[in-house]
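re the bet — no i am not wrong, look at it urself. input seq straight from the record:
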Amino acid sequence: LIVGTYTNSCESNGIYVYQFNAETAEFSLKNSSEKTINPSYLTLSNDNKFIYSTNESGAESTVSAFDFDSKSGKIDFINKQNSEGNDPCYIINDDKNVIVANYSGGNIAVFGKGKNGGLTYVKQVIQHFGKGANEQRQEKPHVHMVYFSPDKKYVLANDLGTDQLYIYKYDANSKNQVLTIKDSVAFKAGSGPRHLILSKNGKSVYVLQELNGDLISFNYDNGVLKQTGETTILAPDFKGKFSSADIHISPDAKFLYATNRGEANTISIFKILDNGKLETIGHTSTLGKGPRNFAIDPTGNYLLVGHQYTNNIVIFKIDKATGMLTDTGKRIDLCAPVCLVFSKI
């Protein structure tokens, strides 16, 4: 289990590596990075040998590359590059490129990879334009996520500031036109698309709206999205402040989970029907404050929620028949955990 943290609110080295037992939920700290600033989102290379992280720090923001030894958990810094936009908040990679969503910069930056796994020059920067109905949160573009389609032909990008999802054609080998725009999808004014997830079969896309709690379902076919459903992650009787956060699907593809922050601090559970639509199963407390990110272990036995404000990771057991969660009582205490990624050993 690899965890990225915010380092400006309490004592943190940045990235931490834990051995996690998917049968018992027992864990042990293996290693951590040397001091790296606000690695608030991480991505692991396909060969398991490199970690790439954002370093979310306003105008000083960077993107970093690290050597990773999955047996010992050792992390060694390779190099970093300017993120080419303020406050990077999401990062993905394949064998050729590292792609970053810059939230405050309102843009996407594409970096090449060197033979040593390090980041080379920036290949491309795509700037978004526009604003939304929410004057506090949508005063300009805010790219919140970049995500590969299963066949790697496209990159999908949520822009919270403009209420748009952009679909880019992806050319891994291009020197300066890695991404070219194909299409976009508009959402309700003021909804704020934050994170999305593709179904395991690649036929459905689910987009979580941060500002209104909507969860929108689409059919996906070769870069084309057609809306099929709409629901909410808000409990029927909830009236307080909220801020939708993260979304994931169980490894068996039966259930979808989504977290909600603010005064809610809940995780919503949905059954994925055969046609890809969602059926609400329930809502449960995440037992902490600020459940910004969560991860399901590859066996599907446990769901781990990182709490930015209560400084811990709460470990839930998943009932694979019902999708419901029960508290194991186990906690990983850590400064502001905000990104959880599982690797192979």
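see?? The chain is about 0% helix and 55% strand. told u. also The chain has a mean pLDDT of 97. so pay up
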